[in-house]
Amino acid sequence: ISFINERGTVHLSVRVSEMTLQEKHVRIIAINDINSELDDKEIESWIRLTRVLTHEIMNSVTPITSLSDTLLSLHQNVDEEIRGGLEVISSTGKSLIAFVESYRKFTHIPTPQPSLFYVNKFAERLTRLARHHNNYPNITIRIDVEPEDLIVYADENLITQVVLNLLKNAMQAIGHEQENGLILLKAYCDPNEAVILEVTNNGPIIPPEEAEHIFVPFFTTKEGGSGIGLSISRQIMRLSGGSIALRSNPAQRQTTFVLTFP
Prior knowledge:
The protein is of the alpha+beta class. It has six helices and ten strands, in the order E-E-E-H-H-E-H-E-E-H-E-E-H-H-E-E. Helix 3 (119-133) crosses helix 4 (156-174). The longest helix is centred in the N-terminal third of the chain and has 40 residues, at 35-74.
């Protein structure tokens, strides 16, 4: 059974059995949350597919690129048209190798080395980094951490990749033209004492038909995008024992990515 609530899409396994207990006929219903199991299976499948594809592409392209470079170096006075063709083969091959290397990151994320760190200082540091690397004077970034000394147990370097990617995506979603652009970094503890970190922006809402695919490797709506950023973010959160989810509020024109740390 699948349904949508404030956590996003929830998948439940429902099993029913009947038996006689103390001469009474009873029905036993077992309900289990299988979100994490489904996520694990999906990610493992993508990792296996990505490894096969990158391996086969690299095995085919690398010799072609190497051979074209060798021919260019051996035949300096070759016909201009042939030289131009070899240069195109070489440059295209190198571009494809660089493209494939970006996907290898998805399958080779280092094992998290968790430690305790303060969320407030972490958020302030990432806000400065995001402003430095992205010039959007029309966007304000606010931080709301409650309590102020909130701490989280995770690999700070890996989580930095996740949050920086979300901030960059939020800035690009708002763009340079929208006035009063706003990004909110909010962190708090939920009733189960999990640490929740939310990255909210007031840019255009992600359409539902795109939202269900945004964590799938290779899926992108950006021109020139690789479709790997959110896939890596989900993989990092999975390895960290947490999760990442998308929550949209069209009425208030808000898009929120929710990171949950157990």
